[in-house]
From TrEMBL:
It comes from Colwellia maritima. InterPro entries: AAA+_ATPase (IPR003593), ABC_transporter-like_ATP-bd (IPR003439), ABC_transporter_ATP-binding (IPR050763), ABC_transprt_ATP-bd_su_PQQ (IPR022467), P-loop_NTPase (IPR027417). This is ATP-binding cassette domain-containing protein. Belongs to the ABC transporter superfamily. Keywords: ATP-binding, Nodulation, Nucleotide-binding, Transport. The lineage of its organism: Bacteria, Pseudomonadati, Pseudomonadota, Gammaproteobacteria, Alteromonadales.
């Protein structure tokens, strides 16, 4: 259960947005914090194999992405920044279609996540069209869908953006608890500092480079700052945070 990058770089044309990035995270809740434009989504696109790195190596669960992408995809769940649910299908149809892409039959799919559906309070919504769900419930469906093939690594790109306080709290706490119950490696990209607790592993990224990595409490001590907000201000030049 790990994600590792070695000297990873990516350019859009001539513009370098990820520069010789060396990252190593293990199981647990790992937060990738950075301002708008820091390179979080670009990094996610590379980790999921959507973008090919300009140079460098990505290893996930010990497999090299450039050689073993199919193996990696079998052990990886992803929630992208933009919703990818079909609004005109029911929750269940969205889930079983995705499961089928992983070669999982519909009964097995629902069995795999029956407990998750209960915990996410989705069981009663299974036959509802996604269009009738609010933003918080749609996000929960995407999380359940990302877990349907029982991944070892879960990537979430700004999964709580646009949600109300209660939905954000529910989702961050639930994903945090998955690290304990399933023992998986979560990479949670955000620019919302109130989602970070002292014991979370924190990676601060700015302008395509890692500025700091460690538990948030430890990093605050090392950089002699009172809280994550001060830490963030010290290590990035942007003030665009909520
Ligand atoms: N398709 C593209 N072509 C050119 N530049 C791009 C493209 N996509 C992103 N960029 C630039 O790459 C940099 C990193 O963008 P990216 O979306 O990865 O950042 P981010 O940290 O995810 O930001 P946000 O929090 O706003 O989603 C930014 O300067 C952005 O303008």
């Amino acid at each position: 259960m790990s994600i590792e990058t070695n000297n990873l770089s990516f350019c859009y044309g001539k513009k370098a947005v990820i520069e010789e990035l060396n990252l190593k995270i293990n199981k647990g809740f790992n937060v990738l914090l950075g301002p708008n434009g820091a390179g979080k989504s670009t990094l996610f696109s590379m980790l999921t194999g959507l973008y090919k790195a300009t140079s460098g190596v990505i290893k996930i669960n010990g497999y090299d992405l450039s050689h073993d992408r199919a193996k990696i995809m079998r052990t990886m769940g992803v929630v992208f920044q933009q919703s990818t649910l079909d609004l005109d299908l029911s929750v269940k149809q969205n889930l079983i279609y995705y499961a089928a892409l992983h070669g999982i039959c519909s009964s097995q799919a629902i069995e795999n996540i029956s407990e998750i559906l209960t915990q996410l309070e989705l069981t009663s919504r299974l036959n509802d069209k996604v269009r009738t769900l609010n933003g918080g419930h749609r996000r929960r469906v995407e999380i359940a869908r990302a877990l349907i093939h029982q991944p070892k690594v879960l990537l979430l790109d700004e999964a709580t953006v646009g949600l109300d306080i209660d939905s954000r709290k529910m989702i961050t706490e639930y994903v945090g608890s998955l690290c304990q119950t399933l023992g998986i490696c979560v990479l949670w990209a955000t620019h919302l500092i109130d989602e970070i607790s002292e014991e979370d592993q924190l990676i601060i990224i700015n302008e395509g480079k890692i500025q700091a990595q460690g538990t948030s409490g430890q990093l605050c001590k090392t950089h002699k700052v009172a809280d994550v907000y001060q830490l963030y201000r010290t290590l990035t030049t942007s003030v665009e945070i909520i």
